[in-house]
Amino acid sequence: MATVYATGKRKTAVAKVWIKAGSGKILVNGMDLNTWLGGHEAIKLKVVQPLLATKQESLIDVKATTLGGGYSAQAEALRHGISRALAAMDADFRAMLKPKGLLTRDSRVVERKKFGKRKARRSPQFSKR
């Protein structure tokens, strides 16, 4: 099997993902998953969710680079990228990932600040006198 490439996105984070047949190693920015995410167990589970859904956690090696956003957004971008790469690799995986919502790009981003406001919607405090 050849290497499959896919891009995952979330908020302002982007993950470039390459997957190939292997032993289940996950390298992110040159570090393994435990070094990259430290003690964030729930976020680690999000990253491996597409591999668990397709039962490929010990059969596929993942190499990825992430940039932009925070570690949580980067992890979700990585999840999206892994899902897209698996779907491109095998059409049967697409049928497993789509119902779980793993192929959908989460389009929620921070709302921009408007002039005359303190934040996106917060108005300055009103003073009658």
Automatic annotation (TrEMBL):
<dbReference type="InterPro" id="IPR000754">
    <property type="entry name" value="Ribosomal_uS9"/>
</dbReference>
<dbReference type="GO" id="GO:0005840">
    <property type="term" value="C:ribosome"/>
</dbReference>
<dbReference type="InterPro" id="IPR014721">
    <property type="entry name" value="Ribsml_uS5_D2-typ_fold_subgr"/>
</dbReference>
<keyword id="KW-0689">Ribosomal protein</keyword>
<comment type="similarity">
    <text>Belongs to the universal ribosomal protein uS9 family.</text>
</comment>
<keyword id="KW-0687">Ribonucleoprotein</keyword>
<dbReference type="Pfam" id="PF00380">
    <property type="entry name" value="Ribosomal_S9"/>
</dbReference>
<dbReference type="InterPro" id="IPR020574">
    <property type="entry name" value="Ribosomal_uS9_CS"/>
</dbReference>
<dbReference type="InterPro" id="IPR020568">
    <property type="entry name" value="Ribosomal_Su5_D2-typ_SF"/>
</dbReference>
<dbReference type="InterPro" id="IPR023035">
    <property type="entry name" value="Ribosomal_uS9_bac/plastid"/>
</dbReference>
<protein>
    <recommendedName>
        <fullName>Small ribosomal subunit protein uS9</fullName>
    </recommendedName>
</protein>
